[in-house]
Amino acid sequence: MERSQIPDTYKWKLEPIFADDAAFEASLSAMTKDRAMLASYQGKLSKPSELLACLELYFQTRLQTNKLTLYGNLRFDSHQKDTQAQALHEKSLDAMNALMAAASFIRQEILALDDAAVAKAYAAEPGLSKYKPYVDEVRRRRAHVLGAEAEKVLTLAEDNLWAEIDLNELPSDHEKTFKGLLADIPLPKIHDETNQEVQLTLSSFVKYRGSSDRRVRKEAVDALFGTLHQYRHALAGTLSGQIRRNVFLARARGYNTALEAYLHKDDIDPAVYKNLVSTIHANLAPLHRYMALRKRTMGVDELRIYDLYTPMVETVKTQFTYEQARDVLPKALAPLGEDYLSVLRQGLDPGNGWIDVYPHRDKDSGAFSASVFGLHPYVKMNYFNDVDDMSTLAHEFGHALHSHLSMNNQPYVTASYSMFNAEIASTFNEKLLSDYLIENAKSDAERLYLLNELVETIRTTIYRQTLFAEFEWLIHTAAEKGTPLTAEFFAKTYESLIRSYYGEHFTLGKDDGMEWAYIPHFYYKYYVFTYATGLSSGIALAQRVLSEGEQARNAYLGMLKGGSSKPPLDLLRDAGVDLSKPDAIAGAAKLLDDTLAKMEKILAAQKK
Ligand SMILES: [Zn+2]
Question: What is the pTM of this model?
Answer without folding.
Answer: 0.93
